[in-house]
Design brief:
- This protein has 332 residues and is mainly beta.
- The protein folds into two domains: 185 residues, Glucose Permease (Domain IIA), CATH 2.70.70; 120 residues, Immunoglobulin-like (Sandwich), CATH 2.60.40.
- 12% of the residues lie in helices and 36% in strands.
- The chain is built from five helices and 17 strands.
- The strands form four sheets. Strands 1, 2, 4, 5, 6, 7, 9 and 10 form an eight-stranded antiparallel β-sheet that branches. The protein has a four-stranded antiparallel β-sheet with strand order 14-13-16-17, with no helix packed on it. Strands 11-12-15 form a three-stranded antiparallel β-sheet.
- A hairpin with a 2-residue loop joins strand 9 and strand 10.
- The longest helix has 17 residues.
- The protein is globular.
Amino acid sequence: MRHFPVLALLFAALAGAAEADIRLDAPVDCTETRLCYVQNFVDRDPGPGFLDHRCGLLGYDGHTGTDIAVANGKEMHRGVPVLAAAAGRVRAVRDGMTDVHMREADPASLKDRALGNAVILDHGNGWQTRYGHLRRGSVRVRPGEAVAAGSVLGEIGLSGRTEFPHLHFEVRLGEQVIDPYLGADAPAGCGVPGRPLWSARAGALLAYRPAGIVDAGFAGEAPVKEKAEAGLYDGIVLEGDARVLTFWYRAWGIGPEDRRRMRLIGPSGEILAESAGQRVDRHKAQWFEYAGISRRSGALAPGTYRGEIRIERRAADGSPEVIELSRSIERR
């Protein structure tokens, strides 16, 4: 019995040493012009239900990684590099799975392949990182290959069991899932102290944001969520005979206490459409809505049209927070 405390101290020291052996850079190449955001975090709730490391609701029960998403499918097809977060050796790869929304995929094709096209890296001392949902044909490494931190492994895709283009980034120590925002020594649960594994740059790039606007734009119709997600409304042109104009936005982390206001403003500064948004009865991981006008006769007047979205909410510490965005489009 008297040896157990010694063994416990030894195991704790080994765990601390192992954690010190890894530092994670950003696993995606995102910039000011190629924006990424974290949609889902590791599940910190030991029972049914979900809580992220901040005791928020960004994720779902049993989620084991950090989901880093891009704005839409068009951005995905431009190519968003997935990078090795630390130096290591390629343990396994998979490529060739189609980039498609999971509801359109053959369920049999997803069995035991939830991560779709993927790369697994071994970093030594029991550390491992996994990169899932990569774009078909983008994987650039082979099993056994040594890679440096920052090496391109592939590109963000839509393969496997997923509903939106993103990278599922997962960290493991042995068989244990590690939350990179807390590290290996963190106690169970949320809102607990920890030692993040992220480098300073990665921590800033992937900082926790409980809510935000993913994308926004215009459409010459009642917009369809799936088209917006695919990026099909990017760069639309208002023709001279256009009679319909809508302004839409996509967001994450919207809750019932958030106050939202949308406006569509005409060339003379007049408010053509205004909406407080649809009622939200519970937290929404993803949200889509729009406001607009449809003229029965006569085309839209020439000039600049502006769409605005403003979300007023309370931060976790109770302080007021405002999220807003505007877009404009020209009708010549």
